[in-house]
Amino acid sequence: MKRKSTFSISPPSKGEIRYRLQVAYDGTTFHGFAINPDVKTIEGLLTESITKVLGSTPVLTCAGRTDAGVHAKAQIVSFDSKPFDPVTIQRSLNKLCAPYVAISSIEEASDDFSARFSALGRTYRYRVLNQEQPDPFLARYSWHVRNPASIERMNHAGQFLIGEHDFSSFCRKRSINIDGKQILASLTREVTALNWEVVDENILELWITANAFCHQMVRSITGTLIDIGTGKIEQSSIIDILDARDRNLAGQVAPPHGLTLWKVDYQ
Predict the structure, then answer these.
(1) pLDDT tens digits for 203-220?
(2) In angstroms, rounded to a whole number, what is the distance separating the alpha carbons of residues 226 and 5?
(3) What is residue 2's predicted lDDT score, i.e. its pLDDT?
(4) Is 67 a catalytic residue?
């Protein structure tokens, strides 16, 4: 069941409006979404472009902080600003952000909207090219896996990951500061859908939806299921891997370029 966050969301300052952007990007040449000094990031480009157009520097909030090389079809970003004409600003931003980042839409949002904390679910797609020879026209957006992968085995194993679980076996652990103490962050997430599809004869796609994802979770699940599909890992081992809460027992981490943030669900 999808649950709305109870996190308190501050309203815009007096005279400002909250805006919601839908952003698509090819993440190949970017070092992830989040601003990082001295490297090119999606947030950095958006912040620079919005500042240039509006004359003030926004504080951006995104639905998912995608890693280096990961793409997005519909990343959601929110920020506060003095009122502006969305159509004119969208056109200006797209000129500045082209060709690898595009603002699909800009609209006013409610004062209590947050691209991150208002989200009820995120859907990712992972694309695999499963054939002997590479394809240069798919190289930026799919993982080339040469050994034949059984979609039946991967789908069967994947069903054990649906539901609320501690996904420590598929995530990087991280610490958070609470009252001056460093505590390991919870890696419990709720996966609501997981399915492999055959798009073309040699193109496989994993579609996965959860209330939220921890760092490298989708890529670790993908890599583990591919290892099951190609026979490197026994199909029945998925239960033991999940229950062990040990990253060392899971399969390989799939490369970032096959992954796309596809959709974010809100109420």
Answers:
(1) 999 999 999 999 999 999
(2) 33
(3) 44
(4) yes
How far apart are the C-alpha atoms of 165 and 162, rounded to whole Å? 8
Instruction: Locate 206 and state its tokens.
Output: 């994993």
- Where is 207: in which H helix or E strand? strand 203-210
pLDDT per residue as tens digits for the range 126-180: 999 999 999 999 999 999 999 999 999 999 999 999 999 999 999 987 755 555 6
Domain boundaries, given as residue ranges, for the chain = 17-108, 121-265
Contact (Cβ atoms closer than 8 angstroms) between residue 226 and residue 36: no
The predicted-structure confidence for 87-116, as pLDDT tens digits, reads as follows 999 999 999 999 999 999 999 999 999 999
Pairwise CA distance, residues 91 & 85, whole Å: 10
Return the closest-CA partner of residue 54 out of 24, 15, 25, 93.
93
Specify whether the CB–CB gap between 210 and 204 falls below 8 A: no
Structure tokens at 78: 């929110």
| Rounded (10°) CA dihedral 177, 181, 184, 190 | -50
CB 70 within 8 A of CB 255: no
Q: Give residue for tokens 């990007």.
A: 25
Architecture of domain 121-265: 2-Layer Sandwich (3.30)
CA 257 → CA 46, 86, 161, distances in Å? 21, 31, 23
Q: Which of 26, 38, 67, 200 is catalytic?
A: 67
Alpha carbon 127 to its chain centroid, in Å, reads: 14
| CATH no. for 17-108 | 3.30.70.580
User: Contact 59/35 with Cβ under 8 angstroms?
Assistant: no
Pairing of strands 101-108, 143-145: unpaired
Contact (Cβ atoms closer than 8 angstroms) between residue 187 and residue 167: yes
